[in-house]
Amino acid sequence: MSTFIKLLLVLSLVLTGCATGSGGKRFSKADREKQGKIHYELGIDALNKGLLPKAFDELMQSDSDYPNQPDVQSALAYAWRLRGDLQKSEQFYKKALRLNSKSPATHNNYASLLIQMQRYEDAESEARKALADPRYPNQHLAYLNLGDALLNQNKFNEAITAYRRAGQFLPGNPLPKLKEAEAYVRYERPNYAQALLETMLREQPDDRAAVEMLEGLLVKQGKRPEARQVLKSFVGIATSALDRAWARDELEKLDHD
Predict the structure, then answer these.
(1) Domain 177-257, CATH homologous superfamily name and number
(2) Does residue 179 register a pLDDT over 60?
């Protein structure tokens, strides 16, 4: 075959947007896009199941088949974070935002990463960008991240407000109140923190996280009999064998300290 004919064939492939797969099979641009979306969905499923190597395999293949998709970049950012490479994770979040700067989910996930990296001012900015879109369905997560970013900048009152707004989006969920109680403990307002935790436990007496925080607070204040009573009550109502075992271990520690 002459060189001229070979060049014509190469040019034809470029102009028609086709690629050659294994076995000589050719894929159109639409086919590659479809394959990229399938690999993305498989990658997300693997992430949700904790199958990190599989997630990387699928997401990297998706990026190869259908490059420069912000959702794929954001998913890869999360995967790298799970793997422990925060710098690599940040690179992918930045790329995702360059491709789609209006994604509140990406701004919020990036804020969470920045909190882990202890870059609290940047985290506050990203959380606020996520909250700028009132259609974002996970506003509670953005408010929790905002609260954490503010608290770590010693903006106590603003952090409390953010946690309470998160609670408005999560009625019945204890996490925003736990965050608020933790803030009160941190800023040496133990009486209010204790009252808040006790109120939570009257509503949800089997909440181990609240019991654990309240026990630690009481021990720190020298109220060991009260801490012991909290644990004994929890042993009596906890439905999880692991939670009961934890409480019994804590009681033994109190008895021997």
Answers:
(1) Tetratricopeptide repeat domain (1.25.40.10)
(2) yes
pLDDT at 3 over 60: no
Per-residue confidence (pLDDT) for residue 27, from 0 to 100? 64
Arithmetic mean of pLDDT over the chain: 89
Q: Which residues contact 242 (CB under 8 A, 6 or more apart)?
A: none
The whole-number average pLDDT for the span 54-68 is 96
CA angle 220, 223, 224 (to 5 degrees): 95
Q: How far apart are CA 196 and CA 177, in angstroms?
A: 8
**Domain 102-171, CATH among 3.30.499.10, 3.40.50.2300, 1.10.3720.10, 1.25.40.10:** 1.25.40.10
Evaluate if residue 8 carries a pLDDT over 70.
Answer: no
DSSP H helices, the chain, are 3-16, 29-48, 52-65, 70-83, 86-99, 104-116, 120-131, 139-151, 156-169, 175-186, 190-203, 208-220, 224-237, 241-256
Q: How many CB atoms lie within 10 A of CB 253?
A: 11
pLDDT in tens, 236-256: 999 999 999 999 999 999 988
Long-range contacts, stretch 6-15, CB < 8 angstroms, 24+ apart: none
Task: Give residue 228's pLDDT.
Answer: 95
